[in-house]
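Section 5: illustrative case.
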């Protein structure tokens, strides 16, 4: 039931990012795919808190 409310925007979805979020496509292309957390200047780092509000 909670997942349905979150999907419909009636409940928040708290959590943390499980990976670095690159700041551009150039950063994606420059990163090595076999090395975790290789993004030079990510927009958000792994573990950054994420929460949406209903």
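Designed sequence:
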């Amino acid at each position: 039931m909670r997942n349905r409310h979150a999907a419909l925007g009636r409940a928040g979805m708290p959590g943390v990012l499980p990976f670095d979020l690159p700041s551009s496509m150039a950063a994606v292309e420059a990163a090595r795919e076999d090395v975790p957390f290789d993004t030079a200047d990510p927009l958000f780092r792994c573990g950054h808190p994420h929460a949406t509000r209903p």
